[in-house]
């Protein structure tokens, strides 16, 4: 796999800090890896403090405190305070289960800038079934109200799939009622746990078509009241998404145990060598780690990407998806209609079952 010269090195803008893989919920599309990091391997708050300062020096502007459920960390407030002290715009990504009002007050006092709450559905019993946790929906409503009371900006994130795609209108209404300024309609991306559950989560082509038309209508109806983010789901797209804004180009992830990854699913690619922040500085890892340099730039690309005019727009799509579907992480993302393996995407999208979910559990 080819690397790139120093002149191609961009500054990262965003850091996803996966503070823990522990989570009370069991969402069947969880983006965490199948092999979850154990509690005893988690980085301590002092190491996160160092990571945030190194990230800011590297050019990072935003940190997303994520997991698992970050509320499972007893030292979450100290970690958020360290991110704020490093000068980073600090966003908490939470399931809401495990963040008490008292913790939220302390986080706000520590300088937290923004909260993103995931919701599983607009219907309470469906939401709790998808999350694999009774009462989760009620907790989310309560935390969202507390966030808005504190004057913190709120984003609602809803991962959509076959079980809730018919309620996108209700999900947007719920986000408005909760006081969110933004709602993300995020179609499932099939890596890790979602790949395991793909046939259970996959919407029909008709559902996807109706959803796209509805999102356009909702954007027009709610313009100026709420921002609605949505993209065409991978398996139904003509071109792939520019995943993570290009490999090793805009963002980095630190896992609970300290591995630094170019994207949240990178560990699913066999054969990549990841460096750990316990052993090296973030700047060293960003510039020189084999995993980051594996797919930087365009020199690693094969045809049809290598000579395609879109290669600097979508960077050949998603490396994790290319590996998951073809076994070759340097292949063109099969979602692209120009990819040699494109036909299998439609074949896989046609496989649907109503078996019980495989919930994500530690
Ligand atoms: Fe993007 Fe490659 Fe498809 Fe061109 S061939 S559109 S670069 S994925
Ligand atoms: Fe890893 Fe897209 S999720 S490159």
Structure description:
Strands 7-6-5-4-3-2-1-8-9 form a nine-stranded mixed β-sheet. The two termini are 33 Å apart. It contains 14 helices and nine strands. By secondary structure, it is α/β, with parallel strands linked by helices. Bound molecules: iron/sulfur cluster and FE2/S2 (inorganic) cluster. FE2/S2 (inorganic) cluster (FES) binds next to helix 13.
Mean pLDDT: 95
Main sheet characteristics: 9 strands, mixed
Q: Give the helix proportion (percent range).
A: 25-40%
The helix/strand order is: EHEHEHEHHEHEHHHEEEHHHHH
How would you classify the helix and strand content by structural class?
Answer: alpha/beta
Instruction: For the largest sheet, list the strands in their spatial order.
Output: 7-6-5-4-3-2-1-8-9
| Number of E strands | 9
Number of helices: 14
Shape: globular
Strand percentage lies at 5-15%
Query: Termini separation (Å)?
Result: 33 Å
Uncertain stretches = 1-7
Question: What would you report as the Rg, rounded to the nearest angstrom?
Answer: 20 Å
Associated small molecules: iron/sulfur cluster, FE2/S2 (inorganic) cluster
């Amino acid at each position: 796999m080819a690397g790139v010269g120093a002149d191609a090195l961009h500054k990262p803008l965003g850091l996803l800090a996966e503070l823990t893989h522990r989570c009370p919920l069991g969402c069947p599309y969880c983006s965490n890896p199948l092999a979850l990091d154990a509690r005893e391997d988690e980085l301590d708050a002092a190491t996160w403090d160092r990571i945030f300062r190194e990230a800011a020096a590297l050019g990072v502007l935003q940190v997303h405190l994520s997991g698992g459920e970050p509320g499972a960390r007893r030292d979450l407030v100290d970690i958020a305070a360290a991110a704020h002290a490093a000068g980073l715009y600090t966003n908490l990504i939470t399931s809401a289960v495990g963040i008490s009002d008292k913790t939220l007050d302390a986080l706000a006092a520590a300088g937290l800038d923004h909260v993103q709450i995931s919701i599983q559905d607009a219907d309470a019993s469906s939401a709790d079934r998808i999350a694999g946790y009774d009462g989760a929906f009620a907790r989310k409503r309560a935390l969202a109200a507390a966030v808005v009371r504190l004057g913190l900006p709120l984003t609602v994130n809803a991962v959509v799939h076959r079980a809730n795609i018919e309620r996108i209108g209700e999900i947007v209404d719920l986000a408005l009622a909760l006081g969110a300024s933004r709602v993300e309609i995020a179609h499932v991306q099939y890596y890790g746990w979602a790949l395991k559950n793909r046939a259970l989560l996959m919407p029909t082509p008709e559902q996807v078509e109706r959803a796209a038309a509805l999102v356009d209508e909702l954007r027009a109806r709610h313009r100026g009241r709420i921002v609605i983010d949505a993209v065409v789901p991978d398996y139904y797209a003509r071109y792939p998404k520019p995943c993570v804004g290009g490999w090793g180009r805009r963002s980095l992830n630190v896992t609970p145990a300290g591995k630094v990854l170019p994207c949240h699913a990178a560990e699913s690619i066999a054969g990549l060598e990841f460096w750990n922040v316990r052993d090296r500085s973030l700047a060293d890892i960003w510039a020189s780690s084999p995993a980051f340099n594996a797919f930087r730039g365009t020199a690693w690309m094969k045809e049809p990407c290598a000579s395609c005019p879109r290669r600097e727009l979508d960077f050949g799509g998603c490396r994790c998806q290319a590996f998951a579907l073809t076994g070759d992480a340097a292949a063109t993302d099969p979602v692209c209609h120009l990819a040699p393996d494109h036909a299998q995407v439609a074949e896989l999208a046609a496989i649907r079952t109503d078996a019980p979910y495989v919930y994500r559990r530690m």
